[in-house]
Design brief:
Largest sheet: 18 strands, mixed
Distance between the termini: 89 Å
Mean pLDDT: 88
Helix content: 10-25%
Oligomer: single chain
Low-confidence stretches: 7-11, 45-50
Number of domains: 2
Radius of gyration: 33 Å
Strand content: 25-35%
Number of helices: 4
Length: 484
Amino acid sequence: MSKLARLKIKFGPRPGQMAITMVITSLLLLLILIPMLDHYVKNEAKWSVKERKSTLAFHLAEAGLDRAYWKLKENASNWTTVAGGDVIAGYNDDVAYEDIPGGKYKVKMEQGETNLQIVITATGKDISENEYRAIKAIYTKEGVTAALQAGSVGAGGNANIHWGPMMSVSGMVLKGGSNELYPRKYARGSITKGAGGGAGNYGNRDADPNQANKGPHTTGDHIEWWSYNEPPGVPDVLTPDTSYYMELAKTQTCTPAGTIGCYYEGNRTGGSAINGLVDTTCTVGADPKVRFFTGNAEFKSNKYFCGVLIVLGNLSFGAGGKSPEGDITADPPPTAWKEYQCNVPTHNGETESGDMSTWAYEADGAHPGTCSGPHGDTDAVDEYPGDAGYHAVSPYNFKTGRVATGHTGFTTGTGTELSYKGYIYAGGTFDNSGGGRIFGSVQVAGAGGMSGGGDIFYDSGLNIKFLSNNITRSSWYEVIAEPF
């Protein structure tokens, strides 16, 4: 046997030494792991308690949203109160509710951007007083969301819509002066220019359901049209509560007199049409002034009246407004600027080279001295009616222009007095054939046309009683909770 082999046998590891080494190593590992495991178990318990408390606080916040929702559903006046900027006791962060074991919650309801939106913030608190969670949600009520909404829309002549969108349950056809890059246009079908001469400077928006169906740019601010747009993008035309408004009309007084009060049976057209109506009474006590027609109605000659107009048949407006009765000053909706993100009336009809989808639509915000159209709302004033600068509006008189400057918001021309102020519903068709100017909203079950020009300015403050006033939660997100 070699010397090296003898040394290995003499000094090599022995079985007993190996066992001792393994035991010592295991003990060292246990000494390291046991404190770590103990620390983890203790923290896991803390984390579990914290998560339970945090989850409970979140559920309490959800309970607050539910309480607020049912308060709004309780009666119509609750919605009107909050949407008008007032508060309801118990729903203004002034009460801590304790009806759920383990914690408390508070609720705050505030008005939204329009009278059809309410913002609710609910904050939940675990009973340990260490955990808070808060949720902010926007609730939307079905209502008047467009200046003109109809079963189909056909606009010609020099018809224009301002301060609110146009909506069609089917297709939309634009011709002449109505074929502009404002307001926003939404349809469940195609959006096209009219055939023949006078179709305007802009082409078809979209007649192909298989392509990208909004533009000119499909994202961002510059969405002037959205075709093949199903609900909720284009909702159904809501039917007003006809029984409610019929009874109101019967209790009121009108000239010419109706069958009963302001309730008219049969047709009022041709020789029976209503001519030169002037009535500045928009409300009767706390109720709107209502004119209710069971058949067709035609309003001829220069006129001004206001309130709620319901025609179950076809409705026609001829001629224009009446001065001085129609020289009304109104506040544009705070979000009126959204209708002018691709172009403004002071640059009517202007184009760039190439396809519309490639145009810049720039100059949003700052307005350089060399700025040309088409471009969206800028910091310059009076680019559209009531424009007070970038994303800002101020009072506007339909006859004399913006109160602060006397500018009408158009490149040329003077203001035009109103023909009507308020809400209009036609169960058949509607045509504004005489160039009348309306401030409010026109809702049409059938075809909505403006063959003779005229304007509709959207009023976002209309409060109409419909057969259905569903309230839905349109968005929600978690926010930083305010301890209480």
